[in-house]
Write a structure and sequence with these properties.
Two copies of one chain form a homodimer.
Chain A lengths: L15 H4 L4 H15 L4 E3 L12 H15 L3 E3 L12 H9 L22 E6 L10 E7 L19 H21 L8 E4 L15 E2 L15 H8 L2 E6 L8 E4 L2 E5 L16 E11 L5 E13 L6 E9 L7
Parallel strand pairs in A: 1-2, 4-5, 5-7, 7-9
Antiparallel strand pairs in A: 3-4, 6-8, 8-9, 10-11, 11-12
Chain lengths: 330, 330
């Protein structure tokens, strides 16, 4: 969102005809339109929620940025980007503020992890339908991680990365969830996982137009080194898709070793963009299967598309990210 | 070493004139020659100590493989390769056997780490000169890790890798050693670190003849994915060189982001090699500086060369891996 001070904060890279009166409020309006159109069960904000450098008061900017989700009463979750801490609050302060806001499911950090790098590493379990055999069981696991801001290692330039402590927490959480799920199910079944963080992995650079859906209009601004989180996710086995922010002009999903690597696409109006190329948001829909007994069962497929902030909230690039009955190409 | 059953186990890829009578005993003799020539303070075996597939009794093969070091009474350390467990002992069993042998400094796993992947993850501290200001202080830190054998993840082919649990242990151990060192020194000083494991990292593929010392005569047989250990080492800050085995025909050192990535070079006679290209071993020498008071101080430089198992144990490719007074090219 790159939210700053609201209506006094101008839009970047919009058509000349759109400049007048354009501000952070257009970002807010876009959230409202998305909520109206999609009636989402959860909204995930993938970092750079505020653009700290230009936020006079980070707490106020955060309040304003998340206000449409809060006003709608829809559960929401956020992770940190690389710009959130550049205002009047530290990274720790931003995350502490976020977890105190209404209707958020964001968490500061896992309670069981003694020491973990970053702020806002947590997971959420999406329970099955009440009254079904999947009630009180997670049918979809969501993981949220802090991918850092900038390298603090002089010999490594550029952006931050997901550290071993975070990867170990993720690995153990995934293993625990898989054990619990298996133990609780009569039939062999499986809860797919989705992972959200801000900075794309180096593996995002593996794709081109021949093997992704969407566009790549700028370089992949990953960390300049590989910290191994892609490997850790592949090894964990449950992750089917990853969603990142960071690069505003890339909005593709590409599949590698069974995991879809997806950008959300640039959303905020006070963020660099491309003139004439609409701001956009990614929608993710997990559908349940019907069991033999006619009730609701496990997740059978995960689909995605994007909506453009144009006159019709045009939906583009619909695709199946994962389907229970399809073996992914590896 | 790829040790199997001793004198009945033939040599691979030697000159026709060398075939007759050539066996594992040539490997043993090479260790003895190296000990005679170098009078080392420590011998490190970088995995595939035995070639399990052809060892009738893994325990006996291990005993025989390390016998020259044990007989000489020289402290030695070993890590596991990908072939050690292919005989009558599991990976755990091989490492348990190793730590019970005489004069070894090998350890099974760190006691403080609750759960860690692999067997034979440990560190050693090399103390400064007795009577000097560096007595009872580590002037050189050695880290040993189990880089695994083969991937157990169906979608990832090939060799194993260093896991998040091991990286976190390494990271915390390095940080602890650096804190202790700083706290104990009046002047700002620094204990360099050396890391030993079997399977090279994907980063070993970054070099060619223009920026390494030695040769590359085969592909880099790293894991097919990057698990981030190079990044973790760079971030730790103390590691100056890494030494791996695995590829018998590569023996180079190349520097990247301040860390020398080195192969040992093929040593064992019952291991694939190249006809007419001598088996070889890498020597590493850490030299101490003289303090202003005329006593021995911290490590001032780390040099390396290789010795060939030819008539003269010819030394080749001498180079400085790290020097306290040189800022490395990054």
């Amino acid at each position: 969102m790159h939210y700053a001070d609201g209506k006094t904060t101008p839009c970047l890279n919009v058509l000349p005809s759109q400049v007048h009166g354009c501000s952070d409020l257009n970002t807010s309006a876009f959230i409202q339109r998305m909520i109206q159109a999609g009636k989402p069960n959860l909204i995930v904000f993938t970092g750079d929620n505020i653009f700290g450098f230009e936020a006079k008061d980070s707490a106020k900017s955060l309040n304003a940025a998340f206000a449409p989700a809060i006003a709608a009463g829809i559960p929401w979750a956020a992770v940190l980007g690389n710009h959130d801490q550049q205002g009047t609050l530290s990274r720790e302060g931003v995350m502490k503020h976020i977890v105190g806001l209404k209707h958020t499911l964001s968490q500061f950090n896992p309670s069981e992890a003694h020491i973990i790098d970053g702020f806002g590493n947590y997971n959420l379990e999406v329970g099955g339908v009440e009254g079904s055999g999947f009630a009180n069981k997670s049918v979809l696991n969501l993981y949220f991680l802090d991918s850092g801001d900038y390298s603090t290692v002089p010999s490594i330039p550029g952006y931050g990365w997901i550290k071993p402590s975070q990867q170990l927490w993720f690995q153990r959480t995934s293993a625990k969830l898989q054990r619990l799920h298996e133990a609780s199910m009569a039939k062999k079944s499986f809860a797919p996982g989705l992972v959200y963080f801000h900075i794309p992995l180096p593996e995002f650079a593996s794709f081109d137009a021949s093997n992704f859906t969407g566009v790549r209009q700028e370089g992949i601004s990953s960390a300049s080194i590989n910290s191994g989180f892609f490997t850790t996710m592949v090894e964990a086995g449950d992750v089917k898709a990853v969603f990142t922010g960071h690069d505003h002009l890339n909005d593709f999903c590409g599949q590698m070793t069974g995991i879809q690597l997806c950008y959300a696409g640039g959303f905020g109006y006070h963020a660099y963009g491309k003139v004439g190329w609409s701001r956009r948001a990614r929608v993710v829909v997990a559908s349940l299967e019907k069991t033999d007994e006619g009730g609701w069962g496990a997740v059978k497929s995960i689909k995605t598309w994007k909506r453009l902030d144009d006159g019709h909230l045009t939906a583009i690039d619909e695709q199946v990210l994962w389907s229970k009955n399809l073996i992914p190409k590896v």
